[in-house]
From TrEMBL:
It holds the Pfam family Glycos_transf_2. This is Glycosyltransferase involved in cell wall bisynthesis. InterPro entries: Glyco_trans_2-like (IPR001173), Nucleotide-diphossugar_trans (IPR029044). Residues 4-148 form the Glycosyltransferase 2-like domain. It comes from the Bacteria. Gene3D superfamilies: Spore Coat Polysaccharide Biosynthesis Protein SpsA, Chain A (3.90.550.10). It comes from Chryseobacterium taihuense.
Amino acid sequence: MKISVIIPVYNAEKYITQAVESAIYLDEVFEVILIEDHSPDNALEVCKKLEEKYVKVRLFQHPDKANHGAGASRNLGIEKATGDYIAFLDADDYYLPNRFDAEKEMFKNPDIDGVYGAIGVHYYTEKAKKQYYHIYQDKLDTVYKKANPKDVCPGQMNLRGSFGLIHLDTLTIKKTALSKMKKMFDVSLRLHQDTEFTTRLSYYLDLYTGINDEAIAMRGIHEDNRITKVETKQIKPSTTKILYWKKLKEWSEQEEKLPREYKIHIIRVYRSFEIANAPLLKKWYLITKYLICDNKTIRSGLYNINFRYSLFK
């Protein structure tokens, strides 16, 4: 196998060496592509030293040398990749030795476009564990059971009940299969752009469950985790997820072949977050707006409201 591992690098000088070295020593890894995203720390110099030290490491920045976010950095990494397969790794996470054990066998089947597995949790300090254990604990994040590829997209949208998630660190994609996608990562999303990507990806590609009963990568938790800080500020889910569901709604409106039940579900959830995120007076305006008399009912998951939406006659 010739796998290109893409690592967006931002403010990760303490962790990037471990991430890189966890990948380059795996036989399946053909190259490690670092996209340095205008870090405020010394990450660029660390990346330059890694490129000098390891022949597998290739370092890039955005053409304007500015900060563009993880999504744009991963898109650039995909453009630069020369391997037959694409894998991702966050700069403060790392792979385990079994990272590509399932892929070596499963990709012998030409019908498989991608494989995903389970990610564990590593706390870099006792302080980080004390602060964030209530969020991550010591559990595996993964799709809970072996899933039919056709169930993965609705599962990612929570249309199939309790399903689990695909973490980018555990995803490996056949590069030629990406041609089925109309776009890669949405660069306008600073949060949830990975989930938005895997949701769309699982609609166009046949993604299979690899190793989901033990970790193949580790999520690194430290005091400076950007996502973790958001999760612990008691910010309402609606304020961070409304944009994610808005993007899915825009995609569903453009994708004519998307099943009708998917479109209804996406609109239902988006409307729920739209109401949840609105000021009090606007909540009632939106509720009134969406209570349109029709024989098609969309039930709001957050507010137990029956929406009659005329779009799906």
